[in-house]
Predict the structure of Histidine--tRNA ligase.
Amino acid sequence: MQINIPRGTQDILPGEVEKWQYIEKKLKEICDKFQYNEIRTPIFEHTDLFLRSVGDTTDIVTKEMYTFEDRGNRSLTLRPEGTASVVRSFVENKMHGYASQPIKLYYLGPMFRYERPQAGRFRQFVQFGVEAIGSNDPAIDAEVIALAYTAYKSFGLSKLKVVINSLGDTESRVAHREALMAHFAPNIGEFCHDCQNRLEKNPMRILDCKKDREHPLMKTAPSILEYLNEESSRYFEKVKTYLAALNIPFEVDSNLVRGLDYYKHTAFEIMSEAEGFGAITTLCGGGRYNGLTEELGGPEAPGIGFAMSIERLLSALKVENIELPIEKTIDCYLVSLGDAAKDYTVGLLHTLRQAGLSAERDYLDRKIKGQFKAADRLHAKYVAVLGEDELKNNKINVKSLETGEQKEVELSELVAVLKDFTAY
Ligand code: ATP
Ligand code: MG
């Protein structure tokens, strides 16, 4: 019986995987420039971590988690996002005590959410994200947004829209919360069950509801920006000034709220404005979360971060018709004629590889024509042909597949010759 892949997951096969490798490498280079260091945390965590940090009014916690009991009766959850684990690790490893501050980290790996699969929405997907913990400087908010923007730009995307908002500090949020409750309460019966729950717990999240998006009361809801106290306003102004200094075009959308209940001050998303992108246009989202380290048992340490999925980045590249510059070649393919030469290439191939060259030979007893075809398929730069006569004279014929030029060289010199040729 054939067993198929689980819903909402995908195999990334050779031919496609090179794109992923290219993207991952580039993202790591960008992080290096921006001075964010990689952190690797477990794929599963105690369920409580997500209940406490992501928040119990979010879609993630209410309906998307892969939660299971292990054989020791512990409740564990496959990580649905990265911030919770990074902040847990920050607290657990007492990173607030490290000499170099703020702590700037990035992660890249699979996340799991039980969602209804559709374009740009998977049950297993790969997120790249960064977190900067330990600074309250609005310049770091701008830096994090700049990193995300730079990343998309570096792959050639041009139809991008950066949207920012401020969620204010606690004082501003309390005032806004009152106003939101007064706004929605009289008609809350017309909203979905989730929104009814959110009214008391966290009315701001009503604004992020996917079901009630079109309800007229959404558009007339009181804007958080009118409730920002002086400090929050000043903070937001600084972020905007810095973004302008970084030449990052942005729009302000006072209805932009983010998943985490702990988000304060800056919230942002980058969307694709390319035509034909479909219903889901958000490429990444992030913001500032002051208070999360304390919630997880650590000292006060404000943080800001964002996360993007590679899947949505790939969709954006496709819609903008961008081909990543992926070159797949090998240095040399060994072609042999006759049994003795064939046997000889077993050792010779290994010698080439040990010398640092990428090389391949035939394993299917192909005729010479078939071996040349195989070399072509691998985009070999050079083919080295070894026949009975050459072997007897300790020679080998090196041919450039690009120019067609041929040259007979000493077998003992093959490595040096190829290294010299492929150095350009
Ligand atoms: P959405 O509103 O699309 O559900 P979200 O608010 O759940 O997004 P976040 O939790 O902020 O998204 O995750 C950050 C980023 O991760 C998203 O902007 C998107 O790029 C990506 N992402 C989220 N869920 C998925 C998924 N199921 N499949 C692929 N990518 C995803
Ligand atoms: Mg979601």
Notes: The first strand starts at residue 37 and ends at 38. The chain has a mean pLDDT of 94.
